[in-house]
Write a structure and sequence with these properties.
Blueprint lengths: L1 E9 L2 E3 L5 E6 L8 E5 L2 E9 L2 E5 L8 E7 L4 E4 L3 E5 L3 E6 L10 E7 L7 E5 L2 E9 L2 E5 L9 E6 L9 E2 L1
């Protein structure tokens, strides 16, 4: 069995619901064959981007890391390389305390939710304005509201460059 070396995958994380488009970079191979990506035993169709790159969507999975393989139709090629794609639960904002503040900003807000990030870089997003935040516990994040125009703004939480919540909670 010949080996097809997988040099890297981008991105390496995505939500458990699947649908993340990943790029898999490999040694050069014949692009005339049908190709699949396989994550944790589940396969999805792949698209050739170049002679050394394929792209595919991730299937829905559990929170465990899954190895990534490439399968070429009608060949004895087997992908090789220790690359994994890790699934994460999507953050969900439940409530803000306090629920409002002055338009000049500066209000310290506690955000309660589920699956909130606890990594190195946590941020709150007030519409399109991103501010740093701190994780208090697995269900609480604190941040300070930036100045904003009068009216409601949507508040979301994101961490470590991964997807943000999509809860539509307003401040």
């Amino acid at each position: 069995v010949r080996l097809l070396w997988v040099s890297r995958i981008v991105p390496t994380h995505g939500p458990v619901g699947g649908g993340t488009q990943i790029s898999i970079f490999t040694s050069q191979f014949n692009t005339s064959r049908f190709v699949w990506c396989q994550l944790g035993g589940l396969s999805s169709n792949a698209t050739f981007v170049s002679a050394s790159q394929v792209s595919c969507g991730t299937p829905s999975q559990t929170l465990r890391p899954d190895s990534v393989r490439i399968i070429l139709e009608g060949s004895d090629l087997q992908s090789h390389g220790q690359h994994t794609f890790t699934y994460y639960a999507v953050p969900h904002v439940i409530m803000l305390s306090p629920p409002c503040g002055p338009r000049r900003g500066g209000t310290r807000i506690s955000i309660h939710g589920t699956n909130l990030p606890t990594g190195r870089t946590i941020a709150c997003r007030f519409d399109n304005v991103i501010v740093p935040s701190t994780s208090v516990s697995s269900g609480w994040v604190n941040c300070t509201a930036p100045p904003h125009t009068p009216g409601l703004v949507t508040v979301e939480v994101q961490g470590d460059g991964l997807a943000s919540s999509s809860s539509q909670v307003t401040f």
